[in-house]
TrEMBL record:
One of its GO terms (molecular function) is 2 iron, 2 sulfur cluster binding. The keyword Cytoplasm does not apply. One of its GO terms (cellular component) is mitochondrial matrix. Belongs to the NifU family. Keywords: 2Fe-2S, Iron, Iron-sulfur, Metal-binding, Mitochondrion, Transit peptide. Its main location: mitochondrion. Gene3D superfamilies: 3.90.1010.10. Residues 4-127 form the NIF system FeS cluster assembly NifU N-terminal domain. It is found in: Mitochondrion matrix. This is Iron-sulfur cluster assembly protein. Its cofactor is [2Fe-2S] cluster. Scaffold protein for the de novo synthesis of iron-sulfur (Fe-S) clusters within mitochondria, which is required for maturation of both mitochondrial and cytoplasmic [2Fe-2S] and [4Fe-4S] proteins.
Length: 137
């Protein structure tokens, strides 16, 4: 079975980068939690953003298949140092082509794209709330 997979995906699966979690209440942290309806797998991806709007670090926890774990590991490496705008342009096909995922595993990379977008959205919402709060003072 393993031979069906490219070494890139196996490498990220066996040595996942940036497994962990951050305080979701930290104002500089955005958290995305998404699930794949097809299989029930769940991915949590968090980003911490610098004042200049670039991603300082990203961590993940994935309850799911090997391809989802590899996709999230790859995604946390990919977003580091990028602006949020750049991060929001990442496509699941970028991830799946890097990892050379087989077609039946495309939805696993979709989970990573969705998780990045959800983390960015969470951060944007937090910042909006913060601005609203400081305007009221
Ligand atoms: Fe569903 Fe991989 S099988 S995320």
């Amino acid at each position: 079975v393993a031979r069906a997979y490219h070494e890139n995906v196996i490498n990220h699966y066996e040595n996942p980068r940036n497994v962990g979690k951050m305080n979701k209440d930290d104002p500089d942290v955005g958290t995305g939690i998404v699930g794949a309806p097809a299989c029930g797998d769940v991915m949590k991806l968090q980003i911490r953003v610098n004042d200049d709007g670039t991603v300082k670090e990203a961590v993940f926890k994935t309850f799911g298949c090997g391809s989802a774990i590899a996709s999230s590991s790859f995604a946390t490496e990919w977003v580091r140092g990028k602006t949020l705008e750049e991060c929001s342009t990442i496509k699941n096909t970028d991830i799946s082509s890097q990892l050379k995922l087989p077609p039946v595993k495309m939805h696993c990379s979709m989970l990573a794209e969705d998780a990045i977008k959800a983390a960015i959205k969470d951060l944007a919402e937090k910042r909006r709330l913060k601005e609203g709060a400081s305007q009221q003072q």
